[in-house]
Amino acid sequence: MDSCTWLYNGAETPPLAGAVEALQEYMRNREGGPLGRERNSEVEQSLRENIARLINGSAKDVALVSNASEAITLIVQALRLQAGDNVIINTLEFPSGVLPYLLLREHGVEVRLVEHTDWTVSVDDMMAMVDERTKLVMASHVSFVSGARLDYQELHRRLLRTNALLLLDVTQSLGAVPVDLQAADIVVCSSYKWLMSIHGLGLLALNPARTERLLPGSAGWRGVTELFYPERFSSFEYYPDARRFELGYPNYAAIYTMEYSTGLLLKTGIDQVERHIVQLGGYLIERLLESGRSVMTPVEEKNRAGNISFVCENGEETANRLLQEHNIYLWGGDGRIRASVHLFNDSNDIDSLIAVLSRS
Fold this sequence. Notes:
Elements: E1 5-6, H1 17-30, H2 34-55, E2 62-65, H3 68-79, E3 86-90, H4 99-104, E4 110-114, H5 123-127, E5 134-140, H6 152-159, E6 165-169, E7 186-190, E8 202-206, H7 208-211, H8 252-268, H9 270-290, E9 307-311, H10 315-326, E10 328-329, E11 331-333, E12 336-340, H11 347-358
Parallel strand pairs: 1-10, 3-4, 3-5, 5-6, 6-7
Antiparallel strand pairs: 2-8, 7-8, 9-12, 11-12
Helix pairs in contact: 1-2, 1-8, 2-8, 9-11
């Protein structure tokens, strides 16, 4: 890859050399037939253990599906919501955390929408909408829009006094900052952003404390305890853990690359990754404010992670121009530009961006 300034991490991260090698290993193992499948299982288990360490859970708490959108849909199906029930979402959610719930309205389920204030959604505003018929609160740990970090631990602590489950989307945080499954009921994530893998894998993690009775609305051979037994044409039994949500074979190419990338994150130390990201993001915010930009991301370190957003009416056009003319990778659109810093970025990347923006 040509030399560039990669601040596109909230969309996807650059390919890692070690991930390329992991892909090659996967293809080599396919030549081994059944022996290759044995190695696939070993790498898969290693990935589950890596993810478990990153989310403060157990390997059995982690299901491997196709993407975060599928994970969310599987949970929506499992809730078996009825007319009169309600779910709570907010105006800083990505469409994957909105669309499945809008379909529920056809069945009499109410979708309650929490508005953001200054690009942040508060726990108080979400809790104000919870009542005895609330079955689920859906929220992102870090907003894809503004980069604001939610105090989900406090939200979950208060939801424990209700019947509502917390579904936490950590797509914009896992791999950048610590995530705690014990402070949520359900955690979902994609593979190709801060976890530095490739497309084609989604994580669905269950905190068993309040999800033991949450059964899938579908069944696949990967989610049941036995395959070839006399009663297989009349009955089946789900796994008692998160694997019950798996259907068929997962994307092993993505499993191999994520096993490598999560191992790298764990070796580096997620606390160290967070310190670097938060400090570098603070430097970016400081430089943006100095240049007169309207920053949407909170200044306080505890309230943000790696996404730094600022207002730009022609965001998509500006991002495309910076890519074409200066080889700077950003996300632009929807009236803003988002620069996302990860562990491999440094102050030189920030200075390069600010220098170009100053001339715009």
